[in-house]
Amino acid sequence: MTSGIRSVARLTAVTAVMGGLAGFAMSSWVGAGPVGRMLPWILGRGLGIAGYLSLTALTALGLWLRHPVAHRWHWPAPATRIRLHAVLAAATIVLVLGHVVALVLDAFAGVGVLGAVVPGASGYRPFAVALGTVSLYLAVLVGGSAALAGRLTGRAWRPIHGVASFVFALGWTHGLLAGSDTPRLRFMYAVTGGLVALLVVTRRLVPTSAYVTERHAT
Amino acid sequence: MTDEGHESLAVDMVKCDGHGICAWLFPERVGLDDWGYAWVDPTEIRTSRQRRAARAAVRACPRRALSLIQSVTPTHSVVR
Lengths: 218, 80
Hints:
The complex is a heterodimer.
Chain A: H1 2-30, H2 39-65, H3 78-105, H4 112-117, H5 126-147, H6 157-161, H7 164-178, H8 183-205, H9 209-217
Chain B: E1 6-11, H1 21-25, E2 30-32, E3 38-40, H2 48-60, E4 66-72, E5 75-79
Antiparallel strand pairs in B: 1-4, 2-3, 4-5
């Protein structure tokens, strides 16, 4: 368990750094302006994009973990999928916290500490920022309850995990309303939102009995 | 052997729904098959660290499929 947590922490750090760099690169690619006085804004934007992409991968993998079709695919191994899910969860929280800190430190962003913490208190697009704040609070609730499963939260982690769909929905809407000023970003939100929606719908539509029967027959 | 007798893990394969949290919490003794369903190493749990991890895995299972079995030979009783 301890070595598992250590390995997740290591992988999370690596994922967060790589995600931050990827977000930074993507932020430059979509056109965030010259580096310099704009650095906190570029960092905030880059980490926000990286955090959103990490959240998308996390949500998609979470849906895929118990997707009827996934039961026919035996690679990667289920234990590896769960480990990757935990790493992505931790990386998402780290990247999004970095996004929040960078924007709070940006004097021109108009968010501020209060705006980042209290939903609706932001000077910049209060509704859109509020969605992001609530999404982060819910993400901490979902991730924290899963991290404490079997101890403080017992079996309650599972019903709480249902809130994860709201985390993605609020995060997606937050990104769309507060960070989709270029066609490329709008395209990214359309593709990622479509992917998650497709997984949600197919997970409900495909009957579970098929793979259960296959499993018990083996 | 402890004062409480032998303790070992058991899984009810019918109840198991493949959430996999047990394998995450106690990877030394709980694994997942190709479909994501749990299998357990049924040998005796020896250390207090293993016992803590086993109890966490049992308490975390949403389907209550995992049990910690205490046995004072030859009687078996199931603890959930």
